[in-house]
Specification:
Elements lengths: L7 H5 L8 H19 L12 E6 L7 H14 L4 E5 L10 H6 L3 E3 L3 H10 L4 E5 L11 E7 L27 E5 L6 H12 L5 E13 L15 E7 L3 H10 L3 E8 L7 H13 L3 E5 H7 L7 E9 L1 H14 L6
Parallel strand pairs: 1-4, 1-5, 2-3, 2-4, 5-6, 6-7, 8-9, 8-10, 10-11
Antiparallel strand pairs: 7-11
Amino acid sequence: MSATPRRWDGLLQSPWRWLLLPGWLAYRPLVAGRNAAYDLGLARVARASVPVVSVGNVTIGGTGKTPLVAWLVERLRAQGHRPAVLMRGYRGDGATNDEARMLGGTVVCDPDRVRGAARAVADGATCVVLDDGFQHRRLHRDLDLVLVDATRPWGGGAVLPLGTLREGLAAIRRAHAVIVTRSDQVDPAELARIDHRLARWGRPLAHARHEPVALTPLGGGDPRAPSALAGQAVVLASGLGNPQGFTRTARDLGWQVREHVRFPDHHHYTGVEAADLAALAARHDATLVVTAKDAVKLVAFRLVAEVLTVAAGLDPDGVLLLDRLLAERCPRPQR
């Protein structure tokens, strides 16, 4: 296979990490200075004419933002809103990207979030859900949610490039609430330690799981329960920020994982790579399974595969917390 695996985790555990010290010494004060400019009111913040909900994180890589964004969109619709999802469109084609294709509905991709919010409002949105927006401080947000991945919560303990933190953990103080994702993929003692450390920033906490919802044939067909592959051989393929989470989910479902081919996050597949994946699954006499994020790009190659769909499974207290925050900060639109 021609896949290029994610190397961040290995680099952070090696002595070569310290060669990145000059970059860290340059990047860290830039981030601190930018945040200070916003904190002191020296940098201008634009307000949209509708409520803005931000879902973000303090680390690079996947923390499960897209499933939570989908959950929030459904909740807001149930409250009578016409929500639009606003995202930068990273690794997209200028108009859309992987996450936008997954979410469907009203999605605006624009690296200028202020301009994107104005477009969404002009198109009839009564609120905006900002995907990956915690560091995009130029657009005011009425509700700021920060996600922390329980399987790798602290980003190596340093900002880029010595670690995978976009900014220091103290930035969590800006959030209105913190959601610990993949909370079911660590043992209860470790989850308690994560909660204890997060508590120092005094923000309400909720827990979320990556809940497998369905397996659907790539290209369309009847869905079936993810447990349908329990005890069967599978080959996984993904281009994710945190591919380890996909592996854990598969094993928790009882799948027999023969290989997991890991491509870079937001990878654009080629026909050769799709053919290689099919051949690999055939050699293992296994079912090829991909994520919904990868399916939107692989479907063009008529690959025989199953697509695993996951949803954000919030604990009951988390549902109550987010419903309360949405009601307070995104009131029902006037008819």
